[in-house]
Amino acid sequence: MATKHEQILEYIDGLPIGEKISVRQIAKALNVSEGTAYRAIKEAENKGYVSTIERVGTIRIERKKKENIEKLTYAEVVNIVDGQVLGGRTGLHKTLNKFVIGAMKLDAMMRYTGAGNLLIVGNRTKAHEYALNAGAAVLITGGFDTDEEVKKLADELQLPVISTSYDTFTVAAMINRAIYDQLIKKEIVLVEDILTSIENTSFLRTSDKVSKWFEHNRETTHSRYPVVDQNMKVQGMITSKDVLGVDHDLTIDKVMTKSPMTVRGKTSVASAAHMMVWEGIEVLPVVDDHNKLEGIISRQDVLKALQMIQRQPQVGETIDDLVTNQLVVDKGKVKGEDIYRCEVTPQMTNHLGTISYGVFTTIVAEAANGILRGFKKGDLVVENMTIYFLKPVQMDSALEIYPKVLEAGRKFGKVDVEVFNEGILVGKAMMMCQLIDRN
After folding, report:
1. Which of 12-26, 252-266, 320-334 has the lowest mean pLDDT?
2. Can you give the residue range of the structural domain that contains 346?
3. Percent helix, percent strand, percent coil in the chain, to nearest 5
4. Which contacts (CB < 8 Å, 24+ apart) does range 402-405 have?
5. Are residue 98 and residue 169 in the same domain, yes or no?
6. Pairing with 364, which of 26, 109, 225, 352 sits 20 to 30 Å away (CA)?
7. How far apart are CA 374 and CA 48, in angstroms?
8. How many CA atoms lie within 13 A of 387 on its CB side?
9. Do residue 177 and residue 204 come from a single domain?
10. DSSP characters for 284-332?
11. 375: closest CA among 338, 340, 349?
12. CA angle 103, 106, 112 (to 5 degrees)
């Protein structure tokens, strides 16, 4: 049976797009406390199917698919620009397909403005009216208001008119930044993208007998299964080792490994890989927020996904991408004697204008990764890194990075890294990692 929390989430998910909801309304409709209703609404907001806007309230919005993640709703725009909704609140759930900056004559502006657009413009009332009639929402910069007739038109057409105190350039930069961040999120592969869903997952119940494991094993040829209770909550994992020499009439809960490691759908594949490598796990159950089974991922699934990530171009660059793009490799004649060079750009510095600790860590890690890959083909996971010497390095400095492999076993690697600026030692680090076969 679903918990009160799950019932509220199902109720919210079933509401029509654009409907306004409140804690009091949810509490009354489902006969729960306001605290329970509040927590459920916050979770719905995290899941992306409601949006809370100051002075407007909480609105049911369209949940976006991953391939469409870079498109924003008008509700999200209000939050990004700290805006105030002047009219057309009922249209806040709609998705915009592009924004237009109104820095031109009215007739030219309208040629670029159409349905599903957002016109960013100052206090030009005629432009507000024309944009609404063309099917576009309006974002007024500089903190200006608009005419009452325009507000009424916005309400009739269900197209938001938003006012923000920021100037046009700042607003465009803020929206671009938000879209850029969404693109980076889109490129990060999550467990939910690669899992074997519950419909295709073989699992056992705590009340099943050990003989059931052998039946599943004959049917699927798999040897590892998650174990769930009557509410589909994961209670354990059972493998061939657990059933070896065991009475077939015993119940599964007597021989399973209890409280197994699990992951959520929103966990990144990289994090899941780290867990599996470190704990020596072949299969991980995927659960929801209430520990209910949603599927499984295997080590093979994770490795395939990691290899796919490496082959894909990054649409939105992260700070790590910016740093690693600066690294240039001078191949040494002898194996393991490569030199990495990097120029410190303003984006790599802290508020004092010297290289930031995080950027230095990325440079060291990338150099160590590169040198280790020369010894062993495959992927690697950093176990630990110790930076035991670091001098301030100012922007526009040219760094030379000398990674040296101290040890490279079948499953393990140890690298010492020295960093120089104009012949002077400015940093030293030691990094240890586990190596993963691609087989």
Report:
1. 320-334
2. 319-436
3. 40, 30, 35
4. 402/339, 402/340, 403/338, 403/340, 403/367, 403/368, 403/370, 403/371, 404/336, 404/371, 405/336, 405/371, 405/372, 405/375
5. yes
6. 352
7. 43
8. 16
9. no
10. EEEE-TTSBEEEEEEHHHHHHHHHHHHHSPPSS--HHHHHHHH-EEE--
11. 338
12. 70
Residue 153's nearest CA partner among 132, 126, 131, 124 is 132
Q: Please report the DSSP string for 412-433 in residue order.
A: EEEEEEEEEETTEEEEEEEEEE
Residue 97 is assigned to a structural domain of this protein: yes
> Which whole number is the average pLDDT over 188-203?
87
Those residues whose C-beta lies under 8 Å from the C-beta of residue 83, and which sit 6 or more positions away, are 77, 139, 162, 163, 164
| Cβ-contact 144, 163 below 8 angstroms | yes
Burial 253-271 (b: 16+ CB within 10 A, else e): bebbeeebebbbbebbbbe
Q: What is the pLDDT of residue 317?
A: 62
Q: How many domains does the chain have?
A: 4
| Summary mean pLDDT of the chain | 85
Higher pLDDT, 269 or 208: 208
Has residue 314 been placed in a domain? no
Q: Rounded CA gap, 435 and 378, in Å? A: 7
CA–CA gap between residue 221 and residue 150 (Å, rounded): 67
DSSP 8-state code for residue 96? P
State residue 135's pLDDT score: 92
- Give the percent of the chain with pLDDT over 70: 90
78 plus 175 within the same structural domain: yes
Share of the chain above pLDDT 90, in %: 37
174 and 281 together in one domain = no
Other beta carbons less than 10 A from residue 194's beta carbon: 18
- 264 lies in a domain? yes
pLDDT of residue 20: 84
The amino acid that residue 168 corresponds to is T
pLDDT tens digits for range 278-315: 788 889 999 988 899 999 998 888 877 776 665 555 55
Are both 227 and 299 inside the same structural domain? yes
Choosing from 148, 166, 187, the residue where a domain stops is: 187
* Residue 67 in this model has a pLDDT that exceeds 50: no
Question: Domain holding 270: CATH number?
Answer: 3.10.580.10
Do 283 and 196 have their domain in common?
A: yes
Neighbours of 107 (CB within 10 A): 8
User: How many whole angstroms separate alpha carbon 330 and alpha carbon 258?
Assistant: 51
Q: Select from 278, 308, 338 the last residue of a domain.
A: 308
Residues 373, 324 within the same domain: yes
Q: Is residue 249 part of a domain?
A: yes
Q: How confident is the model at residue 140 (pLDDT cuts 50, 70, 90)?
A: very high
Is the overall model pTM greater than 0.70, yes or no? no
